[in-house]
Amino acid sequence: AQLRYSVPEDREPGFSVGDLAKDLGVELRSLAARNLRLVSEGGQRHFQVNLAAGLLILDSRLDREALCGQNPACSLHLQLVMENPLQLHRVEVDVLDVNDNAPQFPKPEVVLEITEVANPGTRLPLEVAEDPDMGSNSISTYELSPSEHFTLSINTRGDGVKMPEIVLEKALDREKVAVHHLTLTALDGGNPVKSGTVKVTIHVLDANDNPPVCDPPISKVHLEENVPVGTLVTKLNVTDLDEGPNGDVEYSFKTSNNAPGKFTKLFSLDPRTGEIRTKALLDYEESSAYEIAVRSRDRGSPAMEGHCHLRVELIDINDNSPEIVLTSLSSPVQEDATPGTVIALIGVKDSDSGDNGQVHLQIAKDLPFKLVSSFKEHFSLVTNGPLDREKASGYNITVKAVDSGSPQRATQKTFYLRIADVNDNAPNFSSPFDTAHVQENSLPGTSVFSVSAFDPDEGSNAKLSYSILDNGMQDIPISTYFRIDQDNGTIYTVRALDYEQDKVFQVPVEVKDAGSPMLSSTAVVHVFILDENDNAPTVVYPSVPKGSAFHQTVPALAEPGYLVTKVVAVDADSGHNAWLSYQLQETAEALPFQVERRSGEIRVAQALRESEDPYRLVVEVRDNGTPSLSASVAIVISPEENSVQDFAKSLDVPKSSPKDTNLTLYLIISLVSISLVSCVMFALVAARC
């Protein structure tokens, strides 16, 4: 929005300029919450905001003449900034002139000379009075005290300045009156009217009766700014019809009300030739035109003078680069900001005029931002697409300002915009399925496996915590078997594991971040229990109490190879730990029996002796684990003459061949091979998944 107010100069501080709250349509109580503040475009602060009343008030007394000089329009440009949402308002305050300055002449007394032979109608230019006020408060007219010989003529210059001249109305006679004393009064148009006076003394002289004449009396010259020092501006064309010293003209500057004396610092005048040259660099931005008054005086006695008025108008060239002003910047900005979100308020200035002062802003096209024109010379930088902190955590934004001059001038300003993270990425495991192995009977607290997850967010949004889910896949909660370190994802055993009870566990692991809302993902770790030789073989046949022996009869005439009985044992372990072998414990005397190593069959090895004493055998069953575990059973074999064949005898077969003896071994090898192939295939499938 743009507001416009006016205030007379010389008002006391605290004077109310305008009701901001009403004109902006904002509730009074929200001004402080929205941090309404004033940003002046000038270096000096003249206004302030009364947040309690919502008013724009004066901070210091204004002097229009000091602020704007002779400019017809005097405006102060302000900027109001409000937040939540971020808004920028332009305020223009017109400073109104009051009649606080009286007209004043450069000198208290003016001495003029006129020859007695001057013809009626001869004009004597006078010094113009100066009044810093403008408009109707500036000089309105001049008045001359009554005189028999002189009247006052007022001419208006091209720039509107009234120039008083004394006009000879009646021929003079120096012998009657040699000196005339007049009073010139300058009046302004204010209310009440203010005035200033100067004493005018006119000396009547003889002889030199032709003054120098400037042709034309008022001229205009166009000159580019920044021309080299010493450039010829113009050469005055002045003629004097007199001869000799009376026609020899000398030139000098005459101050005027347009910055009195200032042009003498910028221009030089050759007193003999009338050439006007530059003696300093001219700046269009400082002043676009200069009014130069030149006095031409001859060397007659009395000397006569003429006046030339020259207006030098400067042509602007593109000698000022645009200026970029970053009024406000909202950094950081959330990565989920919607398109059109205001990021920064940018102003631009160019002291040149016309096309040289027309400025265009631009930024790189590959950025997710764009510039939107708010109003003249003010732009908003807004988002033009989605932001993703994980792809770009910040942007170096270079704003380039280019004017429309020839050649073009450009300025650029770079600022950094940081993108703030939001929790828009769930943590991810390196693999959704993992495989781990742990030895059975490991101590509680044994490290099993470490899962790892990654979250591309930052800060608390990337702080991860791990936990084990009880999803009912096991009969007993999985948390009674395993625990996980919530910080590093290491899985530990809670208690000793028994391969014979559980051979594999599926451990579901969940990872969560600390963002809001919280995001999570899961993975499954298959924990395989490795068997340990922790179970000794158990003899299931013959089944006898511990410390007792199994009694078996055998025919006294049994031949070698006769099957006496068979020892059957099992081992709760698996694999090599469950491979069993049978053997007879050594005794002091040789026994006529042998036991098959793999099958546990006890057979007659040689003819029995003729004795009625029974044979005592101890069969030891040993597994193939490390260390090897064993069990034994005692068997007492009694030979009998007419022994009836029992169940064990029914198993009597002729002496087995080596092929029959190794059948069990081949079967075990086949089973183990099939198991190994199955494990390898399972591992390959798991790896591909």
Give the overall silhouette: rod-shaped
Main sheet?
A: 4 strands, mixed
Distance between the termini: 63 Å
| Largest sheet strand order | 1-7-6-3
Protein name: PCDGM protein
GO biological process, one term: homophilic cell adhesion via plasma membrane adhesion molecules
GO molecular function: calcium ion binding
GO cellular component, one term: plasma membrane
Overview of the structural elements:
The protein is mainly β. It has six domains: 91 residues, Sandwich (Immunoglobulin-like), CATH 2.60.40.60; 97 residues, Immunoglobulin-like (Sandwich), CATH 2.60.40.60; 103 residues, Cadherins (Immunoglobulin-like); 98 residues, Immunoglobulin-like (Sandwich), CATH 2.60.40.60; 103 residues, Immunoglobulin-like; 103 residues, Immunoglobulin-like (Sandwich). 6% of the residues lie in helices and 43% in strands. It contains four helices and 49 strands. Strands 1-7-6-3 form a four-stranded mixed sheet, with no helix packed on it. A hairpin with a 4-residue loop joins β6 and β7. About 3% of the residues have low confidence.
